[in-house]
Amino acid sequence: MTSARPQATHHARILEDLRRRILDGRWAPGHQLDKEIDLAEAHGVSRMTMNKVLTQLAQEGYLVRRRRGGTFVAQPRAQSAVMEINDIGAEVAALGLTHDWTLLRREITRLGAAERALLDMPADAGTGDVLFLQGLHSAQGAPFCLETRAINLAAVPAARDMAFDATPPGTWLTQTKPWTAARNTLRAIGVEGAEARHLGLPVGAACLLILRKTRSEPDWVTCVRLVYPGEAHQLVAEFEPGRAS
Amino acid sequence: MTSARPQATHHARILEDLRRRILDGRWAPGHQLDKEIDLAEAHGVSRMTMNKVLTQLAQEGYLVRRRRGGTFVAQPRAQSAVMEINDIGAEVAALGLTHDWTLLRREITRLGAAERALLDMPADAGTGDVLFLQGLHSAQGAPFCLETRAINLAAVPAARDMAFDATPPGTWLTQTKPWTAARNTLRAIGVEGAEARHLGLPVGAACLLILRKTRSEPDWVTCVRLVYPGEAHQLVAEFEPGRAS
DNA sequence: GCGGCCGATTTGTCTATTCATATTCCTGCG
DNA sequence: CGCAGGAATATGAATAGACAAATCGGCCGC
């Protein structure tokens, strides 16, 4: 099976093995693992070695461990990590405001040149079907963020059956699909055309643009373009290295 | 000595002890530590326990370890970590452009209400002397970023003697003072007044505003306001959880 | 004097075992 | 029936010992 790794220590091999099982969904969030001793025996190592692996995965946020309780797969990282504005509903709620989501557009298609340009995607991976979405987040009735998103249906087939007319896709995705890497691009723009109209802003008003591309191992999961009315919104990223939990 | 920590495991105490020595400069970058065995004995623990501590610190980027070579304090984290645009000179160089720094203002003072508002500092820590700086970064001759910065002289006394007329303060600081926590705030603004003039932009042009506050354990180190001409610049933050080195 | 090899040293990894601690579960008493 | 308390159990922490891997240095032969 997972041969093809000639030079690797026991705990490195087991670490990758377990991480993969979590990421590809074989072990769903909430799944309870066997106890240290049994896992150790199953992998042919001592409990100390297995403990090192499990401790590491817990530190990375993949597992939650409780004494006597056992070891569980953690819920997908919501905003545990570092730089996350995945769930705009939660973001608005944290400010103590009411949140609304209005779906403006939904279609299943292949990406054309215009959409690729808008989402800053190169000719890169993926010519298959995508779910293309656009919608408006409102806070306390006022436009808060315009979201334009492509979801790779090859990576997240379940998205095909979601309407996203009541739940924003970001909320659903963070609860559904774990990711392994993300790339955020930030820029200031003067809004134009339809985007200005949706946000109720004059053309040329300063807006914060976030382009995010999320990956899960082999393919990309989703690309999203978020436009925030400039002065009204700010984005805070707190960062403390090496202090995972 | 370091009592005052009633409930703590051995490796947690030692971990904090060593981290402190690195952060407050008692162990300078490049300093060679004693070998595991000796450190273990000095702290009254076994080698396995000390190994756990040193391995952890190496993973956090504080130490560099080489077999047979020994264990060394790492050079201060430049942009090893996650979300770093500390050194604008390096940023510009990475784009293959020439970089220039023009100092516009330099004074040692106490922060007034206007400066606090500009840098988004609350009545928060620090009524002592600060070094207040303003300057312009240029790339290939064109304005690239307007920097306004306060440096806490209580935390970085050496900054008092630096002119910063040739080297930007960000470059110097990242090579001098390690930090433990940072907070970035991002916003889009329409530039006004003097800032527009310095950047050579019309009033109201969209710009990316970054406010960063850096801490090192007890006090704040520096607060900086960076204004980037909007369309011309974008900020990319790549993020991969749990993959430290 | 120079280059290659070999041994000593230091970290890396793993094991077997012991004790500690936090929960859960179950039993028994009111 | 419900709650208190104790036993069982899974993880957490630490130890001593052993071997592997990397590499620094010095020794030896040429």
TrEMBL record, chains A, B:
GO molecular-function terms, A-Z: DNA binding; DNA-binding transcription factor activity
SUPFAM superfamilies: Chorismate lyase-like (SSF64288), Winged helix' DNA-binding domain (SSF46785)
Origin: domain of life: Bacteria
Residue ranges constituting the HTH gntR-type domain according to the UniProt record: 8-76
Tagged with keyword Lipid biosynthesis: no
Keywords: DNA-binding, Transcription, Transcription regulation
PROSITE patterns tied to this protein: HTH_GNTR
A Pfam family annotated for this UniProt entry: GntR
PANTHER family: MANNOSYL-D-GLYCERATE TRANSPORT/METABOLISM SYSTEM REPRESSOR MNGR-RELATED, TRANSCRIPTIONAL REGULATOR PHNF-RELATED
Designated name of the protein: GntR family transcriptional regulator, histidine utilization repressor
Origin species: Salipiger thiooxidans
